[in-house]
Amino acid sequence: MNLHQNQELAELKDKLLAMASRVETAITKGIRALVERDDDLASKVKIEDDEIDELEIEIDDMAVALLAKAPLARDLRFIIVAMKICQNLERAGDEAAGVAKQAIRLNREEQLKPYVDIPRMADMALDMLHRSLDAFVTGNATVAREVLPMDLEVDDLHKQLQRELVSYMLESPSTITRCLALLQLAKRLERIADHATNIAEEVVYLLEGRDIRHGNKGLDT
Amino acid sequence: MNLHQNQELAELKDKLLAMASRVETAITKGIRALVERDDDLASKVKIEDDEIDELEIEIDDMAVALLAKAPLARDLRFIIVAMKICQNLERAGDEAAGVAKQAIRLNREEQLKPYVDIPRMADMALDMLHRSLDAFVTGNATVAREVLPMDLEVDDLHKQLQRELVSYMLESPSTITRCLALLQLAKRLERIADHATNIAEEVVYLLEGRDIRHGNKGLDT
Fold first, then answer.
1. N or C end: fewer C-beta atoms under 10 angstroms in chain A?
2. How far is Cα B97 from Cα B194, in angstroms, rounded to an integer?
3. Using only C-alpha atoms, what is the Rg of chain B?
């Protein structure tokens, strides 16, 4: 791959980072829309998501064009991983849009209780997303591997929240619709953390050439 | 791309079909486990899912090896689409495993009511999956496009089921945990239909070179 192509790879990386930044903004806005009961903010997430979708198509097109130039093995892997990261970011953007949608639903009713665990889950998912992209950009497999156990923490917090919300519903059925909306919102945050984990796994694969998907996570850490 | 590589493309296609067939079996077993209240069958879905995960890694490796051989533009696109289909199948397999898990949970309690809409949703999702793969194998864009509106039907059925289950919960709170399990199970079927839709969109892109993701579905149909 020549100098020109190297520049194209750098552009691909930059575009992916721009996409990741939009996804982070979308998640942050979705959660702020819930906590601050701000419907206007929630509706802005939709615009963010449209831009994320456009970036996905642009990145995909760039990647296909680069693959057509018969890249070196190392660059080939980089391009494929970039495409996979892109797909995960697009889905994380969809989840952020879903968070905003549930926020609008929840803002219509009286707040069930102060939101503590949900913003915490969101912070953790954002942190994972940020670190996995950082690992990709800096080429740091250690940082990527550090993301993997964080997903278990998010899962634990999610399960705890689920149990708590089910107790609420059983104790006072009048809270059922709100609890269901919160359950759906929390599930979306949990999926964002899953996408961050997928990205981290792809980065490890890129840097170490080892496939650590499907439960082999603990073997080398 | 030479004759040898053509054979490799055919192998890639065959492996993808084998994977799709496992995913279909996993979904069918998961739903049968629920309807027939058969925990043994549900536990077999886990084995199926492990095999699906192995096939994903094999297909990915085959695709990367093929991409490294500087394929012609047309074949390049075929290989990339095969990788994307593979990823969607893997996630559909995960959803099938989730269906089986909820079936085990539901089988522990008295059946809420005869399952009608859930098997119907599953049949529709299976049909979509089958058709989108068929469109890929036969290179038929018309069949692929026919899958897209089916997703709307699944979404409608899903929303109807959600409303019904929420009414149940409100009327008799003792059904809450069962209703929640059914809601989660239905959500997984809805996601399987989404994956089938993604596959159909990829097939249209492969055959027509047009990207119809992100809400442009209705434009040309």
1. C
2. 16
3. 19
Rounded CA-CA distance B37/B33 in Å is: 5
Residue B218 has a CB neighbour count (10 Å cut-off) of 10
Determine, for residues A80 and B83 on separate chains, whether the beta-carbon distance falls below 8 Å.
Answer: yes
Give CA–CA dist B15/B58, Å, rounded: 9
Q: Which residue has the tokens 């536990």?
A: B43
Please, are residues A102 and A115 in contact by the beta-carbon 8 Å criterion?
Answer: no
Residue A124 corresponds to which tokens in the numbers above?
Answer: 């953790």
A42-68: average pLDDT: 95
Determine the residue of chain A that is closest to B187 in CA distance: A184
A176 to B183: CB separation less than 8 angstroms, yes or no:
no
Non-local (6+) Cβ contacts of A191 within 8 A are A91, A92, A95
Kindly provide the ipTM of the predicted complex, given to two decimals.
0.90
**Cβ–Cβ contacts within 10 Å for residue B120, how many?**
15
Q: What's the whole-model pTM score?
A: 0.92
Tokens of B180: 């929640």
The answer on pLDDT for A88 being more than 50 is yes
- What is residue B131's three-state secondary structure? helix
Domains parsed from chain A with CATH numbers:
3-208 (1.20.58.220)
- Rounded CA separation A28/A41 (Å): 10
Nearest Cβ partner for A68 among B73, B180, B183: B73
Instruction: Tell me the pLDDT tens digit for each residue of A187-202.
Output: 999 999 999 999 999 9
Question: If you average pLDDT over residues A33-50, what whole number do you get?
Answer: 96
Q: Which residues contact A103 (CB under 8 A, 6 or more apart)?
A: A30, A31, A33, A34, A39, A42, A185
Interface test with B, best of A95, A169, A175, A199 (most B CBs within 10 A): A169
A64/B77 Cβ within 8 A:
yes
Tokens linked to A130: 């940020």
Residue A49: closest C-alpha in chain B? B214
